[in-house]
Amino acid sequence: MVASKLRELALGYPGATEEFPWGERVVKVDGKIFVFLGDASTAKNVALKLPASHAAALAVKGAEPTGYGLGKAGWVTIPLAAKLPFAVFAEWLDESYRAVAKKRRLKELDAAG
Fold first, then answer.
1. Domain locations along the chain
2. Of 32, 35, 42, 89, which cross-links 100 as Cys (Cβ 3.0–4.6 Å)?
3. In sequence order, what are the beta bridge partners of 27?
4. Hey, what CATH topology would domain 2-106 get?
5. Could you read off the pLDDT of 45-101 as tens digits, one per residue?
6. Apex CA 66: angle with CA 52 and CA 93, to 5°?
7. Cα 93 to Cα 106: distance, rounded to the nearest angstrom
8. Residue 77 forms beta bridges with which residues?
9. What single DSSP character describes residue 30?
10. Which residues contact 112 (CB under 8 A, 6 or more apart)?
11. 72-87 residues labelled b (16+ CB within 10 A) or e (exposed)
C-alpha cells in the first residue's frame, strides 16, 4: 500500500520516469534515480537521498544506510512497514527529488505549487 502510494506520488513529479534496472522499481528525473522502491512484486523497503533528514531517517527502526556505497552520499533505506505516517514518507520523497533534480525541474515543481 505505502509503496504503491509512493510510486504514484513520485511519478507526479516533473520529468519523473519509472524504470526497472536490476529487477527493482526506481523512479528517475532526467536520468537520475530519486527513489528506489524495491522489487516490483514484493517491495519491502524504500531508499531515498536525504541530505537534510538523514539522521532522522536513520533513527527509524530497521532503517540503514543504503548499500553499494550510496549510504555515504546520504541515501537511507527505510522499511515500508515502519510505523510512520505516510506524510513523512511523502516529505522525504520530496526531499530526495529536490536533492537530485536539476534547477529547471525545481522551478517547474515550485511553479505547479
1. 2-106
2. 32
3. 18, 35
4. Aspartate Aminotransferase, domain 1 (3.90.1150)
5. 999 999 999 999 999 999 999 998 898 999 999 999 898 999 999 999 999 999 999
6. 45
7. 14
8. 47, 64
9. T
10. 14
11. eebbbbbbbebebeee
Residue with cell 528525473: 29
Question: Residue 100: how many CA atoms within 13 Å on its side-chain side?
Answer: 24
In contact, 25 and 37? CB cutoff 8 Å: yes
pTM above 0.70, yes or no: yes
In terms of Cα–Cα distance, which of 99, 85, 108 is closest to 35?
99
Report DSSP state, residue 79. E
C-alpha cell of 84?
510512520
The identity of residue 52, as a single letter, is A
What grid cell was written down for 101?
Answer: 533534480
Distance from C-alpha of 78 to C-alpha of 17, rounded to nearest angstrom: 22
